[in-house]
Design goal:
globular; 76% helix; 2 domains; 297 residues
């Protein structure tokens, strides 16, 4: 009787849609992983680029929907999707000047929007909202294109770490979490879930580092350990950022296209923070660790 009661109480802590959430995550993980493998294993970047453009387009539509509706949302999303797709394609072609040019053009359009609204319609307008076009492009496609500048091993680490961090935080928080970590931003996030995400991400990054670079130096292994910590923290901050944005705008989910998750932006919010952090960890951190290690050699 006691055992049945305990099992019931544990089950009651897990939301009923958790299976949909896991299945959706696994399908996305498999699809993105296949695209990354086609790029790294067979040197076929177009599948990954196409996937990034598709993800960027859907996420931009959701993001701009936070701020605009109707025709303005369509116009804003259309501009963002075209410019964002150009950035991702230019990244594949290793054309940084095109990326800078597109960002400058987005700034130009945003500035004109503010100028004519202020001068012709409403002189109480503040400029912040008019730069949502630029902010959305930097937040989503500019960040996603970083994946094209990581090798297959690094892409696998980022994808696996982000996936594991989300699952660990979700289930540990549901089962054992009590004390909230940042209730004003995300009332469902707990310290237990956060610590579980940190430890699981640290383990995944370190183990993958050993598998892909078994003969690496001590400084390399230290870099993987530190990378696990930094990526875990970035993953949770990405989740907190979108939660704060939605709370300010009184929005529950970015959309309802993904069962158990809400919108696509709700699913990739962590990835949008782990990608730039991973780029730093894989390209800058090893040199820092080697330099510090040399001081004590």
């Amino acid at each position: 009787m006691t055992q049945d009661t305990n099992n019931t109480s544990v089950t009651a802590k897990i939301p009923p849609n958790h299976k949909k959430r896991v299945i959706t995550s696994l399908l996305l993980f498999s699809f993105v992983g296949s695209a990354m493998f086609s790029n790294g294993g067979f040197d076929l970047p177009y599948l990954l680029v196409g996937l990034l453009i598709l993800v960027s387009a859907v996420a931009l539509w959701e993001f701009y929907g936070f701020f605009k509706t109707g025709l303005m949302r369509i116009v804003l999303s259309g501009l963002g999707i075209v410019l964002g797709s150009g950035i991702i394609y230019a990244s594949m072609e290793n054309s940084p000047w095109w990326i800078l040019g597109i960002l400058s053009f987005a700034f130009f359009i945003s500035s004109l929007s503010f100028l004519f609204t202020y001068g012709c319609k409403d002189q109480t307008q503040t400029p912040q909202l008019h730069y949502i076009l630029l902010i959305g492009i930097v937040y989503i496609p500019v960040t996603l294109q970083i994946a094209l500048h990581l090798n297959f091993f690094e892409q696998a680490i980022v994808l696996s770490a982000t996936f594991v961090s989300d699952i660990a935080a979700y289930y540990a928080g549901c089962l054992w979490g009590d004390k909230k970590i940042w209730a004003t931003v995300s009332p469902k996030k707990t310290w237990v879930g956060s610590i579980a995400a940190l430890l699981s991400t640290l383990l995944v990054v370190f183990l993958l580092g050993l598998i892909f670079n078994a003969s690496g130096s001590l400084s390399k292994h230290i870099s993987y350990l530190l990378s696990g910590v930094f990526i875990a923290v970035a993953s949770q901050l990405g989740d907190f950022f979108e939660s704060a944005l939605k709370r300010v705008l009184n929005i529950k989910d970015s959309s309802n296209i993904l069962p158990g998750h809400g919108g696509l932006l709700d699913r990739i919010d962590s990835l949008l923070f782990t990608l730039p952090m991973a780029f730093f960890c894989f390209n800058v951190l090893p040199f820092v660790v080697e330099k510090v290690q040399s001081w004590f050699a």
